[in-house]
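Reading a protein record of the kind used here takes only a little practice. Think of the row as the fold of the chain written in a discrete alphabet. A record is reproduced here so that you can trace the correspondence yourselves:
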Amino acid sequence: MSTKVNPYKDSELNKKEQVTKMFDNISGEYDGLNRVISFGIDVKWRKEVVEIVAKHQPKSILDIATGTGDLAISLTATNASEIIGLDISDGMLEVGRQKIKKKHLENTIQMVIGDSEDLPFEDNSFDAITVAFGVRNFENLEKGLAEILRVLKPKGIFVILETSVPTKTPFKQGYKFYSKIILPTIGRVFSKDKFAYRYLSDSASVFPFGEVLNNILRNVGFIEVENHPKTFGVATIYTASK
């Protein structure tokens, strides 16, 4: 189980409602700030996810917590005939819809509002499922993963891209300083929502990673679970199957 961290400590809303509100608030600024706070390295990580998925030659892909659709758009390189981007924030989805329209990808990518813990799809629906920087926002991690397992086809590929915490010196100390001091400061200065980037930092610091998350995936029922740390361990790509 992961430690629960909410965006707004004094709010009476549950985590799911708070996360929806937060991403609606920052949807217009999210892409630009994301490039800044990750130094653009997140683009490389997403490219690796696409390469992993492409090897399985999927016809149908579900991108959960798709946000503004960056990964869903990149996944068109797999030549999948159907890509669905799902998110609980309609504000983020609307930004994504405009990007998809500009790229004339409406016939391939569909943006759908929905709950990762109650997916509106039948069992065994997708050849591949991806989640980039989204699983730590699940209110109930195991429930969300179980839903993903349900809608993934047997022998399908599931790929997670998520932040993690470096374990080796000096990267561990550098990451702690950046995530606790620099990242929240950037958020306070440039974001409309002064709590959002503090939440993104705090949630990353307590979320299970590496072998801990591997074991959660196995306990849910996934097989062939592997993790691949990236950029000194500040992010990790996980792969699993059914």
